[in-house]
Amino acid sequence: xxxxxxxxxxxxxxxxxxxxxxxxxxxxxxxxxxxxxxxxxxxxxxxxxxxxxxxxxxxxxxxxxxxxxxxxxxxxxxxxxxxxxxxxxxxxxxxxxxxxxxxxxxxxxxxxxxx
Length: 115
Hints:
This protein is α+β, with helices and mostly antiparallel strands. The chain has 2 helices and 10 strands. The termini are far apart.
């Protein structure tokens, strides 16, 4: 089976064509860098995303946050719910870990701005 994707790992946005057999990626073409092949294989077998959103500080102000690493795509909503339940004590520095093991993914949530 042939699958077509647009790579999102760099600004090039390469049009990728992947051959998939029995749930396994056999070949990838169209990529101009090695990241395209890695992206296609991951996207077609176990897709992941970095989650970016906001959490509330203890003074009510929103703080931009993100997952330190990508999380499985099927866990995104659970991660967002875990972040929304946070109340972040101030002060906070960019890069501070605000939540460890978000939704059981093993991935931390970090602050994207100092406040």
